[in-house]
From TrEMBL:
This is Sodium-dependent transporter. It comes from the Bacteria. SUPFAM superfamilies: SNF-like (SSF161070). The keyword Plastid does not apply. It is a multi-pass membrane protein. The chain crosses the membrane at residues 26-47, 59-84, 105-128, 148-174, 186-205, 244-265, 285-302, 322-352, 372-392, 412-434, 455-475. PROSITE patterns: NA_NEUROTRAN_SYMP_3. Its main location: membrane. CDD domains: SLC6sbd_Tyt1-Like (cd10336). Keywords: Membrane, Transmembrane, Transmembrane helix, Transport. InterPro entries: Na/ntran_symport (IPR000175), SNS_sf (IPR037272), YocR/YhdH-like (IPR047218).
Length: 485
């Protein structure tokens, strides 16, 4: 169906599509790093990271996550970007050009953003709604316990997701340098400044609770960074590690074809060694500062009870916290949700761009017509997922022991199942079939430097295949069954 629609739009103009593809590139290293960092810095950093830290032992999660970023994250980011630039193609054809017969792995990688795109604009729409609420001075309504549930279960919530999806499609429609890079060059510096300012403000907070205890932002910082290992078991440690790895995939946009696509737009004179390090640093710093923004503030006004908010932390606990701050909190809340909207937009753009690039290669279509068709498809998908809490409500048990609605199902399949599965086979492909030197050659171009070459070889050949199999078994619930026998 999709192929027929696309062929109707441009009559299979192969030469025109190839010509357009060759013109697509980032202007240089700064443009690439900001766009890639924009993809990495998203809702995962501002929403998912803080609530996982609060749930998974504070500093314990931070330590595990940092170790994973410097090892697994570095390896996956290096691999994806190098594959993209060396092949000059998006995920499906990139894997096939590396090794004949591996197109199926490219197809699975392509399916990750396809699934994520069905719900990312929905979350972006929720953030947009809260920004409007704070902008119009109705933050008191948002602070009510039932507000978020009432909002997402109302069919009118779908319009916010549709607006977010339209903006995303418009930017991708305008291309790599004219749309994605231009947007990232504006949004990323503004986002970084806002994150730092709110984080500093959060540490200055002080409040006396109903129990008479005075709590400060610095007390909340201790809760955030000091490891909590009480009741820690092997199974619990593996689950925290899985959470951190899932967050890593989601945050760095690896094992989903996005960085392969972005890598294919990078010019040969760009230093990938330096670029990878810069993307790692920006993404990790923003994630850490997001925790500094959120955890101390919630602790000051809600105590340890606020730490158990889980996924509802951004949309339930935070509005309460901002409201409790008084006038200053309403301003901070407005700035925070603007920041979150920016972060969600840059990530949403990267997801749609990955799908667009692959479809252009598969169906030999031009960017504008491909984006128009995908825009229509994902407007429909966004509507369905948004209405999954009202008209299309259902509950399905998931292998991780939870139950989920449509959004949860898409998230589980893409993040907890497909990403670890893809990583297992991509490490086998690079580590043992095409060999690490294939990647190293691209990382050393143009200046011959790859400072973490030995670490990369050990990780891609020996460590990652084994660890990823264990984490995949954990994510599917199979590991608990094996250990219980």
């Amino acid at each position: 169906m999709v192929q027929w629609v696309l062929s109707v739009f441009n009559g299979n103009n192969v030469k025109g599509a190839e010509k357009l593809k060759k013109k697509s590139s980032f202007s240089g290293q700064i443009g690439f790093v900001l766009a890639a960092a924009g993809s990495a810095v998203g809702v995962g950093n501002l929403w998912r990271f803080p609530y996982l830290v609060a749930r998974d032992g504070g500093g314990l999660f931070l330590i595990i996550y940092l170790v994973l970023v410097l090892t697994f994250g570095f390896t996956l980011l290096t691999t994806d970007i190098s594959i993209g630039r060396k092949t000059g193609q998006s995920a499906i054809r990139a894997y096939e050009s590396m090794r004949p017969g591996w197109k199926k792995l490219g197809f699975l990688t392509f399916m990750v953003p396809v699934l994520i795109m069905t719900y990312y604009a929905v979350i972006g729409g929720w953030i947009l709604k809260y920004f409007i609420v704070f902008l119009t001075g109705a933050s008191g309504d948002a602070a009510k316990d039932s507000y978020f549930t009432s909002f997402i279960t109302n069919t009118s919530s779908v319009w916010f997701g549709l607006i977010f999806m339209l903006v995303t499609a418009l930017i991708v429609y305008n291309g790599v340098e004219g749309g994605i890079e231009r947007c990232s060059k504006f949004i990323m510096p503004v986002l970084l400044i806002m994150v730092v300012c709110i984080a500093i403000f959060s540490l200055t907070l002080k409040s006396k609770g109903a129990d008479g205890v005075v709590r400060t932002g610095l007390d909340g910082l201790k809760v955030y960074i000091i490891p909590d290992v009480s009741g820690l078991t092997v199974s619990r440690f593996l689950q925290v590690t899985l959470d951190a790895m899932s967050q890593l995939f989601f945050s760095l946009s690896v094992s989903m074809g996005i960085m392969i696509t972005y890598g294919s737009y990078v010019k040969k004179d760009v230093d990938l060694n330096k670029s990878v390090a810069q993307i790692e640093v920006v993404d990790t710093v923003v994630a850490f500062l997001a925790g500094v923004m959120i955890i101390p503030a919630i602790y000051v006004f809600s105590g340890m009870d606020g730490m158990s908010a889980g996924p509802s932390l951004m949309f339930v606990a935070l509005p309460k916290t901002f409201y409790a701050m008084g006038t200053a909190g309403r301003v901070i809340g407005l700035v925070f949700f603007l920041l979150a909207a920016f972060a969600a937009l840059t990530s949403c753009i990267s997801v749609l761009e990955s799908i667009t690039a692959n479809c252009m290669e598969i169906f030999h279509t031009g960017r504008k017509k491909t984006t128009l068709v995908l825009g229509v498809i994902y407007l429909a998908a966004t509507a369905v997922i948004a209405l999954g809490y009202s008209l299309f409500y259902l509950e399905i048990p998931l292998p991780n022991g939870t139950t989920g609605q449509l959004l949860d199902i898409m998230d589980y399949i893409s993040n907890s199942f497909l990403m670890p599965f893809i990583t297992i086979f991509s490490t086998i492909l690079v580590g043992w079939l095409v060999k690490p030197q294939w990647i190293i050659e691209e990382m050393e171009h143009p200046n011959g430097k790859f400072s973490r070459k030995q670490l990369y070889i050990v990780m891609i050949k020996f460590v990652m295949p084994v660890i990823m199999v264990i984490l995949f078994l954990q994510s599917t619930g199979l590991l608990d069954r094996i250990l219980s026998k």
